[in-house]
């Protein structure tokens, strides 16, 4: 399966190099679209990528997904989305779902348990879902924060809850840190039932996501604690390996949990 990658940063770079080095059975690297032009990877134009790929991995952020995702699918190429938070925009999600003939796939990224949430929600609507994300305080500074708030956040000695509310709003406010809230909402099948919180902790060596859910199917609690990416601490180091696992499953489906 010829696989192209859009974005060669902390996530896309790991994915592209693993594909280049032949570590994903059944998949090869067809090229990379990245304005930085990493010298050790075959950088191509988007048109060339679409002409030589069966699958395209989006690893360049929410804006890139909105700009090129529909084009990838319309060209008949399958699309694996990393920036799931962009799908908080219902119009974009609808556009991607109708853009085929390519198929849309979502990466699980930094969390698990999505399959069970989806199964429980399919049995009967979930009554309550929460996801609390805790990260190192300095990594949660956002461009929209006033200078004073940003400085207090960098200097805080205690955990601070920065935001709690509907998953759609939290995802929009923390686009590099709350893709997981979007993934949970999409698995639950209802954005309105999911409450998300972002907590800054100056002592947080690991990034944690605590997911709880209740409904007629049962009561669930998942806790995930990931090591941040050394290159981009707003993301977890495991994320590119989740993407590689998804590519492997698409390239050579054998025993696959879906």
From TrEMBL:
Binding site for NAD(+): 110, 179
Alphabetical UniProt keywords: NAD, NADP, Oxidoreductase, Pyridine nucleotide biosynthesis
The reaction(s) this protein catalyses: L-aspartate + NAD(+) + H2O = oxaloacetate + NH4(+) + NADH + H(+); L-aspartate + NADP(+) + H2O = oxaloacetate + NH4(+) + NADPH + H(+)
UniProt-listed Enzyme Commission number(s): 1.4.1.21
Record protein name field: L-aspartate dehydrogenase
Pfam families for the chain: Asp_DH_C, NAD_binding_3
Note: The iminoaspartate product is unstable in aqueous solution and can decompose to oxaloacetate and ammonia.
Pathway: Cofactor biosynthesis; NAD(+) biosynthesis; iminoaspartate from L-aspartate (dehydrogenase route): step 1/1
Residue ranges constituting the Aspartate/homoserine dehydrogenase NAD-binding domain according to the UniProt record: 7-99
Domain Aspartate dehydrogenase: 157-243
HAMAP family: NadX
Organism expressing this protein natively: Amycolatopsis thermalba
């Amino acid at each position: 399966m010829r696989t192209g990658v859009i974005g060669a940063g902390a996530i896309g770079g790991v994915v592209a190099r693993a594909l280049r080095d032949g570590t994903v059975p059944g998949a090869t690297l067809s090229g990379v679209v990245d304005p930085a032009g990493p010298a050790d990877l075959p950088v191509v134009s988007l048109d060339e990528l679409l002409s030589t790929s069966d699958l395209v991995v989006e690893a360049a952020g929410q804006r890139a997904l909105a700009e090129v995702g529909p084009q990838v699918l319309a060209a008949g190429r399958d699309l694996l989305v990393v920036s799931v938070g962009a799908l908080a925009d219902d119009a974009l999600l609808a556009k991607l779902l109708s853009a085929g003939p390519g198929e849309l796939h979502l990466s699980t990224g930094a969390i698990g348990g999505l399959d069970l949430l989806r199964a429980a929600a399919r049995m009967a609507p979930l009554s309550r879902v929460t996801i609390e994300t805790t990260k190192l305080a300095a990594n949660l500074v956002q461009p929209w924060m006033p200078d004073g708030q940003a400085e207090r956040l960098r200097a805080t000695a205690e955990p601070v809850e920065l935001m709690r509310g509907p998953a759609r709003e939290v995802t929009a406010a923390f686009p590099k840190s709350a893709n997981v809230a979007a993934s949970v909402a999409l698995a639950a099948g209802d954005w309105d039932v999911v409450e998300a919180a972002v907590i800054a902790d100056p002592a947080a060596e690991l990034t944690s996501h605590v997911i709880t859910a209740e409904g007629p199917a049962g009561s669930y609690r998942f806790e995930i604690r990931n090591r941040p990416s050394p290159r981009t601490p707003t993301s977890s180091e495991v994320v590119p390996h989740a993407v590689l696992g998804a590519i492997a499953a698409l390239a050579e489906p054998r025993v696959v949990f879906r």
